[in-house]
């Protein structure tokens, strides 16, 4: 039976989608992607638990023993109360933005970046691929939930490939349609392979989101809508299948045993649902609500520290994902032998820190990040556009709270500085090797995301 709280969650997510339908451009893409992500976490998982009533067992993170102990009906209703509140605050913010957007339809989009923008993106992508290959071959690529990379410098440089791929997917426009399809296909395939290598869904989801942003930039067609839906579904489904290939025989056998306790109609979706674990974080927050974790002042302090490189700060910074695992989830689950970084979610983090007012602040902070990403992708300045690409490539719009988002922004700002240095190098090289390069006019709308549909565009351009 669907509880009132679950119904409110579904209604709030539907409201977000409706608001997105009245908003133009990239903001619509981000809002729909958020609604889909939160639907998998806060709707699909509860519905599976309510319909199947699975028995908790080893290596099954879907059947949470804490929810089972309370009874799935009662447990899900309790943990979704702050979730329903937070999603409705977010839905109202989206509706307010939709009204504002309709009143400002005639504003002029931002001009473009320089003609060196695409060569810079290609350069940072190539450098990032080299770092990825080196980190993978040396065994320092990392994996899902790792607290820190065994080679921090290599991991930092490898992030260039992610930003470069996102930028090329969004902005690159060869004259030939089939060349475009080939390049986009190659970029998406590489991101899928890296997703499998690092055991994280973030690279392929970021690439799929970038493709949707590209379509929003040049206008939607039926082919584009179908393409983005198919890529998202195939990407996530293939991720689970490819991960199973890497698993040893005993792990695959254990996964088959675990999945066999679910009805056959549900089993194909279990690998996907296991990757969207915000319901677990909501359960963590419910059990932590009677205990103290961080004060709002401490959150502000740690957030500001996250923007400063550790070498300059001179002290160890809080890792919110690790702290959530050991201190928040650790209050209701035995985490003594587990060392991992977890997604907390804006709603769940806010509820643990300051109750329902904290939830409201957390979701409005995420909405502010969404608007920052939209504006950054419209900027004429490379550094600002790079920040927008970093936001698009990261999970902060979906599964991180204020602390986690500030950590990502701090790393992104360092990445922006590195890309700015690379851009200056690329410009100087092009100036010396091609005297005509500096005389070429900048593309008319290279770095700006169009806010109106362009008629007559090629389906994949």
Task: List the topology elements.
Layout: H1 4-21, H2 26-52, H3 65-70, H4 72-79, H5 81-103, H6 117-137, H7 152-171, H8 177-198, H9 202-218, H10 222-246, H11 249-259, H12 267-273, H13 278-288, H14 296-306, H15 310-313, H16 320-328, H17 346-377, H18 382-393, H19 402-433
Helix pairs in contact: 1-2, 1-5, 2-9, 4-13, 5-17, 6-7, 6-19, 7-8, 7-9, 7-18, 8-9, 9-10, 13-17, 14-19, 17-18, 18-19
What does this structure look like?
- Helices cover 69% and strands 0% of the residues.
- The protein has helices spanning 4-21, 26-52, 65-70, 72-79, 81-103, 117-137, 152-171, 177-198, 202-218, 222-246, 249-259, 267-273, 278-288, 296-306, 310-313, 320-328, 346-377, 382-393, 402-433.
- The termini are far apart.
- Residues 108-112 and 441-461 have low confidence and may be disordered.
Name some characteristics of this structure.
mainly alpha, transmembrane helix, disordered C terminus, Oligosaccharide repeat unit polymerase
Short description:
The protein is mainly α and 461 residues long. The chain has helices at residues 4-21, 26-52, 65-70, 72-79, 81-103, 117-137, 152-171, 177-198, 202-218, 222-246, 249-259, 267-273, 278-288, 296-306, 310-313, 320-328, 346-377, 382-393, 402-433. The chain starts with a helix and ends in a 28-residue tail after the last helix.
């Amino acid at each position: 039976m669907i509880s009132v709280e679950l119904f409110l969650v579904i209604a709030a997510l539907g409201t977000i989608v409706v608001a997105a339908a009245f908003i133009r451009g990239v903001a619509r893409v981000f809002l729909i992607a958020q609604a889909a992500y939160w639907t998998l976490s806060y709707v699909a998982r509860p519905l599976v638990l309510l319909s199947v009533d699975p028995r908790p067992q080893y290596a099954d993170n879907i059947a949470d023993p804490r929810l089972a102990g309370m009874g799935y009906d009662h447990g899900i209703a309790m943990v979704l109360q702050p979730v329903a509140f937070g999603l409705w605050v977010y839905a109202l913010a989206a509706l307010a933005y939709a009204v504002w957007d309709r009143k400002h339809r005639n504003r002029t989009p931002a001009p473009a970046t320089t003609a060196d923008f695409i060569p810079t993106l290609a350069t940072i992508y190539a450098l990032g691929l080299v770092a990825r290959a080196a980190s993978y071959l040396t065994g320092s690529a990392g994996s899902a939930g790792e607290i820190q990379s065994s080679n921090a410098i290599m991991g930092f440089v490898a992030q260039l490939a992610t930003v470069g791929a996102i930028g090329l997917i969004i902005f690159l426009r060869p004259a030939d349609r089939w060349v475009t399809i080939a390049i986009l296909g190659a970029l998406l395939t590489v991101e899928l392979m890296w997703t499998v290598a690092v055991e994280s869904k973030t690279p392929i989801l970021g690439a799929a989101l970038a493709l949707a942003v590209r379509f929003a930039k040049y206008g939607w067609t039926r082919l584009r809508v179908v393409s983005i839906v198919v890529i998202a579904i195939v990407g996530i489904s293939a991720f689970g299948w490819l991960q199973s290939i890497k698993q040893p025989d005993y792990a695959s056998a254990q996964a088959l045993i675990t999945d066999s306790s679910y009805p056959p109609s549900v089993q194909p979706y279990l690998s996907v649902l296991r990757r969207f674990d915000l319901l677990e974080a909501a359960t963590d927050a419910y059990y932590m609500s009677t205990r103290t974790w961080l004060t709002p002042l401490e959150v502000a302090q740690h957030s500001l520290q996250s923007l400063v490189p550790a070498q300059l700060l001179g002290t160890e910074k809080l890792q919110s994902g690790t702290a959530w695992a050991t201190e928040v989830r650790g209050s209701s689950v035995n985490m003594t032998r587990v060392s991992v970084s977890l997604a907390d979610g804006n709603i769940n983090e806010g509820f643990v820190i300051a109750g329902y007012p904290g939830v409201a602040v957390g979701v409005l902070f995420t909405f502010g990040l969404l608007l920052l990403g939209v504006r950054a992708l419209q900027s004429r300045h490379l550094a600002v556009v790079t920040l927008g690409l970093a936001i698009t490539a990261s999970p902060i719009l979906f599964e991180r709270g204020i602390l986690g988002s500030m950590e990502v922004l701090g790393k992104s700002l360092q990445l922006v500085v590195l890309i700015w240095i690379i851009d200056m190098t690329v410009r100087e090289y092009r100036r010396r090797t091609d005297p005509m390069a500096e005389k070429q006019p900048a593309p008319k709308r290279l770095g700006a995301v169009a806010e109106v549909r362009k008629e007559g565009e090629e389906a994949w351009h």
